[in-house]
Amino acid sequence: xxxxxxxxxxxxxxxxxxxxxxxxxxxxxxxxxxxxxxxxxxxxxxxxxxxxxxxxxxxxxxxxxxxxxxxxxxxxxxxxxxxxxxxxxxxxxxxxxxxxxxxxxxxxxxxxxxxxxxxxxxxxxx
Length: 126
Known about the structure:
Elements: H1 2-11, H2 14-48, E1 59-62, E2 65-67, H3 69-101, H4 111-125
Antiparallel strand pairs: 1-2
């Protein structure tokens, strides 16, 4: 029973829900980037290389056996774009976080300085 209670406490923490949301958004983002790569980026690159469709690139090993190297190339390009976009997003988030955390310069004034300031102000009034 203790194990079930601990699991329930773990599952109900906010971090689990944040992680679940991140996984769902990440999956959707991956589909968007895959579409960007396969439908927008790769066709012009293939056209520049003489009409090559990378997903059609295969290495034949004999009787109807082939290695689909083109699909691998497509996946590598997808990964590189996703990794670069995440890198930029983390970099921006860190910059924003750093600006929020940076406290304004607080000048600490000693007791002597406060007393001297008061004396100066009193002397100005006379």
